[in-house]
Amino acid sequence: MTIIETDRLTLRKFNLNDAVFILELLNTPLWLKFIGDKGVKTIQEAENYLKNGSLKSYEEKGFGLYLVEEKTTKSPIGMCGFIKRDELENLDLGFAFLPEYIGKGYGYEAANACIKFGKDVLGFEKIAAIVNPENEASNSLLVKLGFVLEKQIAFGENATLVNLYGI
Fold first, then answer.
1. For 24-53, what is the mean pLDDT?
2. Distance from C-alpha of 116 to C-alpha of 121, rounded to nearest angstrom
3. Closest CA to 5 of 112, 154, 161
4. Is residue 140 included in any domain, yes or no?
């Protein structure tokens, strides 16, 4: 089910058939470095990640992270969408892409479309984003999208220091 369409991309809801892609994405070097090891090492674990993450969020909240596909090839290239985290006051914009698709404008295109969708369709007034301070590409992308760095916070079970942005 297509949620958002841009010039080059289609964003749609994840389904269990996307477990192979999730397994690949969650084990890329940049994901592991900047987001962390989610312990997803098998197709079954990838299916559980989807069931307990995006699929559950769609059902309970009406939104979640979406699969980003390149429109012409229908190839999955990343994810982008919203997460409601207990630790954050506002919804969190999340995004991640396979390494070969980084630096080609796909992140900006997908995230910009998600922000517009979040505000215009879902009615979000404020959107947050958290990112590892060392992740220069993601920090730059958030600024390009119009986010403003609000502060650094300790986040997650390891109290990792992250940059908190708002738009």
1. 96
2. 8
3. 112
4. no
Return the structure tokens found at 25: 């994405």
Cα four-point dihedral sign 31, 118, 76, 137: negative
Total domain count, the chain:
1
Please check whether residue 163 is in contact with residue 131, taking contact to mean a CB–CB distance below 8 angstroms.
Answer: yes
6 Cβ contact partners less than 8 Å away, ≥ 6 residues apart: 71, 109, 110, 113
| pLDDT tens track for 144-163 | 999 999 999 998 878 889 99
d(CA 147, CA 107): 14
Sheet with 127-131: list strands edge to edge.
2-5, 9-13, 65-70, 76-83, 91-97, 127-131, 160-166, 148-155
Q: Which domain holds residue 111?
A: 2-127
Does residue 165 lie within any of the structural domains? no
For residue 76 the two structure tokens come to 């999955």
Q: How far apart are CA 135 and CA 33, in angstroms?
A: 9
* Residue recorded with tokens 């470095």: 33
The model carries a pTM of 0.94
